[in-house]
Design goal:
There is one protein chain. This protein is an all-alpha fold. It is flat and about 55 Å long.
Length: about 150
């Protein structure tokens, strides 16, 4: 496996963050708008509203972790890209996907309940959503990395 230099590694991480950020922004916008809808106010239980509020919080945490890469670079390593910066940026981007997956899954639960009017089915849908995101965002990339490393020690 070809090793990237630090500058290219950091640039790739920033590019990946640029891909994740607009989706997170869009989710956040919809989360804020829905609170002011009549349906949200009249038909969701207090528990559902708390789930939505927690999903908004998780989206904010994901936002902060993704943006922390740029902020950290700007304040600490502005003119220097170090191995520590690359490792931190990579870790923050990966960890930021966890609250994002949880937020998306919580919102999918609420959406499923709104459409299906069945909490058990909606809960199952939310769990399936979370499992799918975990599989695609964490399991498959890690498995691919292990396969690549085993072929090219």
């Amino acid at each position: 496996m070809e090793r990237e230099n630090l500058h290219n590694s950091f640039r790739n991480i920033i590019d990946e963050a640029k891909l994740v950020f607009p989706g997170t922004q869009t989710l956040f916008g919809f989360q804020l708008v829905v609170v002011f809808s009549e349906y949200f106010q009249k038909n969701l239980t207090e528990t559902d509203k708390l789930i939505h509020l927690f999903a908004i919080f998780l989206t904010i945490v994901a936002f902060a972790m993704i943006l922390m890469v740029a902020a950290y670079h700007r304040h600490i390593h502005y003119s220097l890209i170090t191995k520590d910066l690359v490792l931190l940026a990579n870790k923050l981007l990966k960890l930021g996907m966890i609250p994002l997956a949880l937020a998306v899954s919580a919102e999918f639960y609420l959406l499923s309940y709104t459409i299906l009017q069945n909490r058990v089915t909606a809960l199952f849908a939310g769990i399936i959503c979370l499992g799918t995101l975990w599989f695609m965002w964490f399991f498959l990339p890690k498995r691919r990395l292990q396969e690549t490393l085993s072929k090219n020690p």
